[in-house]
Design a protein that fits this description.
Elements lengths: L6 H5 L1 H18 L12 H15 L11 H5 L6 H17 L4 H12 L2 H4 L4 H4 L18
Helix pairs in contact: 2-3, 2-5, 5-6
Length: 144
């Protein structure tokens, strides 16, 4: 009986995830809108957590010691527009790292599966969340 090869292994394992996430977060930190979400946060730490998270979700033999998505993102007002923009930057990064298209589609499908845990449906709904002592992060689109 043959063992099914994980997406993690198919994309090239940890070296590929590291390269993709470095490229991706270079773009995210430099982005005039999405970059505001990362101000004051160490890029290497964010890259590492994303690599660990996606590595586990892709079937890699690794651990994700980070916070649950809902907790890590709860003070951020994240819209569908921002998630779609983020995913286009991720796609671009995957293409630049020469990940084959069928694997890009699978990677993006896994990525999008978690949008429901962090996306806000409306500003009014977000403003009802009790953040205790945390300051909400609402970043308006500079082009709007």
């Amino acid at each position: 009986m043959s063992k099914k090869i994980s997406l993690f292994d198919q994309v090239g394992g940890l070296p590929t995830l590291d390269r993709v996430h470095k490229r991706f977060y270079d773009k995210m930190y430099a982005h005039p809108w999405l970059g505001k979400f990362f101000e004051g946060h160490d890029q290497q730490a964010i890259e590492l957590r994303q690599t660990q998270f996606m590595g586990v979700k892709m079937g890699g033999d690794m651990r994700y010691p980070g916070m649950a998505l809902e907790l890590a993102h709860r003070r951020m007002y994240i819209t569908l527009e921002q998630l779609e923009l983020r995913q286009s930057i991720l796609r671009e990064s995957l293409e630049e790292e020469h990940v084959p298209e069928p694997l890009i589609k699978r990677w993006l499908k896994i990525d999008a599966a978690f949008w429901g845990h962090i996306k806000n449906d409306s500003l009014e709904e977000f403003q009802q969340v009790d953040l205790k002592y945390e300051r909400p992060l609402i970043v308006p689109n500079p082009d709007a």
